[in-house]
Design a protein that fits this description.
Chain B: Pfam families: ABC_tran, oligo_HPY. Chain B: Residues 320-340 are annotated as: Disordered. Chain B: It is found in: Cell inner membrane. Chain B: Residues 5-248 form the ABC transporter domain. The complex is a heterotrimer of chains A (338), B (340) and C (297). By secondary structure, chain A is α/β, with parallel strands linked by helices. Chain A is built from eleven helices and twelve strands. Chain A has helices at residues 42-49, 75-84, 93-96, 103-113, 119-132, 138-141, 151-162, 181-198, 209-215, 233-238, 243-251, and strands at 4-13, 16-26, 31-35, 57-65, 68-69, 86-89, 169-173, 201-206, 218-223, 226-232, 303-305, 308-310. Chain A has an eight-stranded mixed beta sheet, with helices on both faces. A four-stranded antiparallel beta sheet of chain A has the order 2-1-4-5, covered by helices on one side. The longest helix of chain A has 18 residues, at 181-198. Residues 320-338 of chain A have low confidence and may be disordered. Helix content of chain B is 32%, strand content 22%. The two termini of chain B are 34 Å apart. Residues 320-327 and 335-340 of chain B have low confidence and may be disordered. With 297 residues, chain C is mainly α. Chain C has a single domain (30-51, 77-290), classed as MetI-like (MetI-like fold, Orthogonal Bundle). Helix content of chain C is 69%, strand content 0%. Chain C has eleven helices and no strands. In chain C, helix 2 (32-54) crosses helix 11, helix 5 (143-154) crosses helix 6 and helix 9 (214-236) runs parallel beside helix 10. Classes of the chains: A alpha/beta (338), B alpha/beta (340), C mainly alpha (297). The interface between A and B is large, with 51 and 52 residues.
């Protein structure tokens, strides 16, 4: 049995479906990346897993963590699950910390929320946690306030708080988006190290395919609230299945070392990401898809083959082998700049 | 080729509560007409302040900003206004760079009105023309900014910058606030406009892949100073400054084989406080190759090859020399993933 | 959520409900406070405007027996005061005075406050320091005392009372507008205007001012309410315009009779309360409308 099993997770606000029957699982010690553009429902998925969706929103579907069914859990029990079994790290390390409390107090508070430790023991554990997330001079910095920390250091503190109770699952929602690249690399390494050392499952929510490639074991691509593709990371980057994934990879300029590549036009994805509530019928990507035809007027079923899954009428999974799918690296289809 | 923009020893100073801060500290470069200079660095390196000083949104502390030979850094008020039409700016956040109460027509006609260009019908025609150029439907002219998506708003901001037919546009992180699919649209649009109208860009970005895609020449900034500047071929083929190398190494790439590479050892720690820059090389505290010389004496930007200048003792120290033994060769992880 | 049909205010509920359903007014339905406030204000304005028609003649003339309680004599629905003046006529005529002073004082405070606030916020530095020190000067003085001194110096006319109240109230508006202007000043569209070569005057008028006014809309209605209260206090103290009637002076005049004829103070007091309440409700309603916690879908 997997650490986390999600079945038909749905989040709706009135008539707007933000997350649409999403199913996936995460194994212990595994990193699953959920990738997509803004408005695709990836952050809402993170909130829905921990039942933190704000009131007008309604959550449907089943979430099982460690064999515990979270679906029908009363709010009081759910509160114990958050932090205790699931840790969450958000995008903005500034707003995740309380500016008037010292960092030591905040980490110690997270420790005591889930264990019967006394103040002194909790403080010692807080120092341990700060050390675990590689904050230099952890003991001395316990009494500093958050504003004395840089953005990267604040995110480390936020991570320390998230793992204070040894959760079995860590959800990181765009944890490095607000940070500089060199700091981003540090934080991603830290998350990877903690996952490995503590044996946690890690759900990494991001818009950056580069981050996905270098951190994740498995990738789930979301578009308009739905899962359009799921693959092991090497497979996804070797041969993306869904036209959206392929387009997304082609749209991002790629950093190349050595001889810079000749100037080429970037592959555009025409049109806009549909808003929840105005999602086109049938395949949600069809209006922007070059391969779409009349057959795309119905919602494509999710086809599975081994560990890969794709929701596209134009891709036939059982018959699929990597060579038949046009690779995004095939530059012949790119239009030259001049 | 003539130099369109020459920046010489530019300094920008801010007064902050923790003392005065030299956000830009002696920056010089040249940008030719119709070309793109990419300005990269992490937050706090002064790249945005440099852009704002060139746009004269903030006043330079000292130094010269010459646009076609005229020092626009010293002009003020009415003397500066006629020159303003030659250099325009596109900002990072399209939601903040358009007045939420102003219809698109007004926003686009404003530059013409300020500079007394054309009569009503001429302005109207020009608005339609420029809207079409940036890929906006002229029918949308009477809408308010919030009725547009982020990408469309950035097109409007670009259209506003184009209204006066500038020869230079300073682009401050123009695609950072946009989704990947929209980034491609805007980057392509900028490239098209450069090809068709010969506009020069000062392209400020923290995203190396975007800069590699667009820039002819790249300047890398660290703590208010340019640490390396080179043409694209030279910079991407042989980045010389340890900071440039670390920056490149840190960029997550769409290559799963790089998974698990420990890139953190290369660049530990954070930027030092800009109010109190360390003596010597400002990067020395984070540099794996730093020597005592680096900590004591600030290196000067010096050419190591024609058009390729680096501010690093490892390349320019008397005992090292341009091809000296002390120069850092590419770290192994940089060599490993050359062209993918 | 549907709004129950309001039955007061002389407007048939059906019409009102249909009005509420028109697109521009649909958001009003969300704010009962605003609706009730508007109805109260409409009533007061209607009474003020029709006072001359309903009660022609000078309301200060004796009209009947003194001290008639309301509901006793059909001619004097609200009774008469200790001098035999018609309470209803006095109340109606006073409505105009109170509204005039309230609105004129608020208008002055807004004018001075907005100008000072925008300039201080936009230019910052020395301009900001000077303007804010002046506003602190005003704020550190007890405003009622300051108003009284001004009225005593200038003489008690409606104009001077409005001026005195308005000139003591502007600092709060100035601080509000300044905070907004400081925020707007830092936004990119102001920088964009600078890069176009726009002068300070145009930037302030076209970009900074319009975008700094949102909180003022709310504050303005509360300001009117405060001004009406200040005017009532002045009149109560006998510093009102001796040639006009106002609710405040009526309260003051009725005070000695409080034990035997409390209606003489309660009626004008109630009128002040309802009018102030009306403006406060409008202010709160506008606040809900302009700063919706949940976006309207």
């Amino acid at each position: 049995m997997s650490l986390l099993e999600v079945e038909d997770l749905t989040v709706r606000f009135g008539d707007a479906v933000v997350v649409d029957r999403l199913s996936f699982s995460v194994e212990a010690g595994e990193t699953l990346a959920i990738v997509g553009e803004s408005g695709c429902g990836k952050s809402m998925t993170a909130l829905a897993l921990t039942r933190l969706v704000a009131p007008p929103g309604r959550i449907g579907g089943r979430v099982r963590l460690d064999g515990l069914d979270l679906t029908g859990l009363p709010e009081a029990r759910m509160r114990a699950v958050r932090g205790d079994r699931v840790g969450i790290v958000f995008q903005d390390p500034m707003s995740a910390l309380n500016p008037v409390l010292t960092v030591g107090e905040q980490v110690a508070e997270a420790v005591r929320a889930h264990s019967p430790l006394g103040a002194r023991a909790a403080r010692a554990r807080a120092a341990e946690l700060l050390d675990l997330v590689h904050i230099p001079d952890a003991h001395r910095r316990l009494d500093d306030h958050p504003h004395r920390f840089s953005g990267g250091m604040r995110q480390r503190v936020a991570i320390a708080i998230a793992i204070a109770a040894n959760p079995s699952l860590l959800i990181a929602d765009e944890p490095t988006t607000a940070l500089d690249v060199t700091i981003q690399a540090q934080i991603l390494c830290l998350l990877d190290e903690l996952r490995r050392d503590l044996g946690m499952g890690l759900i990494l929510i991001t818009h950056d395919l580069g981050v996905v490639a270098e951190t994740a074991d498995r990738v789930l691509v979301m578009y308009a609230g739905r899962k359009v593709e799921e693959q092991d990371t090497p497979g996804l980057f070797a041969a993306p299945l869904h036209p959206y994934t392929r387009r997304l990879m082609g749209a991002k300029p790629r950093l190349t070392l050595g001889e810079p590549p000749p100037r080429q036009r970037l592959q555009e994805i025409p049109g806009l990401v549909p808003l929840p509530g105005a999602i086109p019928p049938g395949c949600a990507f069809a209006p922007r898809c070059a391969d779409a035809d009349a057959g795309c007027a119905t919602v494509p079923p999710l086809q599975r083959h081994g560990r890969a899954a794709v929701a596209c009428h134009k891709v036939e999974l059982p018959a699929w082998t990597p060579r038949q799918v046009p690779r995004w690296t095939d530059r012949s289809q790119w239009r030259a700049a001049e | 080729m003539s130099a369109l923009l020459e920046v010489e020893d530019l300094r920008v100073r801010y007064a902050t509560r923790r003392g005065s801060l030299m956000a830009v500290d002696g920056v010089s470069f040249t940008l030719h007409a119709g070309r793109t200079l990419g300005l990269v660095g992490e937050s706090g390196c002064g790249k945005s302040s440099l852009g704002k000083a060139i746009m004269r949104i903030v006043d330079p502390h000292s130094g010269a900003i010459r646009l076609d030979g005229v020092d626009i850094g010293r002009l003020s008020g009415g003397h500066l206004r006629p020159h303003r039409r030659r250099f325009q700016m596109v900002f990072q956040d399209p939601a903040a760079s358009l007045d939420p109460r102003q219809r698109i027509r007004r926003a686009l006609e404003e530059p013409l009105a300020v500079h007394g260009r054309g009569d009503r019908s001429e302005r109207r025609d020009r608005v339609r023309e420029v809207m079409a150029q940036v890929g906006l439907h002229p029918e949308m002219v009477d809408r308010l900014p919030h009725e547009f998506s982020g990408g469309q708003r950035q097109r409007i901001a670009i259209a506003r910058a184009l209204m006066l037919e500038p020869s230079l546009i300073v682009c401050d992180e123009p695609v950072s606030a946009l989704d990947v699919s929209l980034q491609a649209q805007i980057l392509n649009l900028l490239a098209d406009l450069q090809a068709s109208r010969g506009i020069a860009y000062l392209f400020i970005s923290h995203d190396l892949s975007v800069v590699q895609h667009l820039a002819d020449r790249i300047a890398v900034m660290y703590l208010g100073q340019i640490v390396e500047i080179a043409d694209r071929t030279a910079l991407w083929r042989s980045p010389a400054h340890p900071y440039t190398q670390a920056l490149i190494a840190a960029v997550p790439r769409m290559n799963p084989e790089r998974r698990g590479l420990n890139r953190t050892r290369l660049l530990p720690g954070d930027l030092p406080a800009p109010q109190d820059p360390p003596p010597g090389c400002r990067f020395a505290g984070r540099c794996p190759f730093a020597t005592r010389l680096c900590r004591e004496q600030a290196p000067r930007l010096a050419e190591i090859a024609p058009g390729h200048a680096v501010a690093c003792h490892l390349h320019t120290a008397p005992d090292g020399g341009p091809d000296g033994a002390a120069a850092p060769s590419l770290p192994p992880f940089l060599q490993k993933d050359t062209v993918q | 959520m549907s709004l129950s049909a309001p039955t007061h205010g002389g407007m048939p509920g059906g019409i009102l409900q249909r009005l509420m359903r028109t697109p521009g007014l649909r958001r009003l339905r969300g704010s009962r406070a605003l609706l009730v406030g508007l109805l109260l204000l409409a009533t007061v304005v209607a009474v003020a405007l029709s006072a001359g028609l309903l009660y022609p003649g000078d309301p200060r003339d004796m009209a009947g027996p003194a001290g008639t309680w309301p509901g006793i004599d059909a001619r004097f629905s609200l009774g008469t005061d200790m001098l035999g003046r018609d309470m209803a006529a006095a109340m109606a005529h006073s409505a105009g005075t109170s509204l005039t002073v309230g609105i004129a004082a608020a208008a002055l405070a807004l004018l001075v406050g907005i100008a000072a606030g925008v300039l201080a916020g936009y230019f910052g530095g020395a301009v900001d320091d000077v303007l804010m020190r002046i506003s602190e000067l005003f704020q550190t003085m007890p405003s009622l005392l300051f108003t009284i001194i001004l009225v005593v110096i200038l003489g008690p006319t409606t104009a001077s009372i409005s001026f005195a109240i308005g000139i003591t109230a502007w600092p709060q508006i100035a601080r509000l507008v300044r905070a907004e202007a400081v925020r707007v000043r830092r936004l990119d569209y102001v920088d964009a205007a600078v890069t176009l070569g726009m002068g300070h005057g145009r930037i302030v008028l076209l970009h900074v001012l319009p975008n700094s006014l949102a909180p003022v809309v709310v504050a303005a209605s509360i300001l009117v309410a405060q001004a009406i209260l200040s005017d009532a206090s002045l009149s109560f103290l006998g510093l009102g315009d001796p040639n006009g009637m106002s609710w405040g002076s009526m309260v003051g005049a009725g005070r000695p009779m409080l034990r035997t004829a409390w209606y003489m103070t309660a009626l004008p007091g109630g009128a002040i309360f309802l009018t102030v309440m009306g403006f406060m409700l409008i202010g709160n309603g506008l606040n809900d409308l302009l700063n919706p916690r949940t976006p309207v879908r």
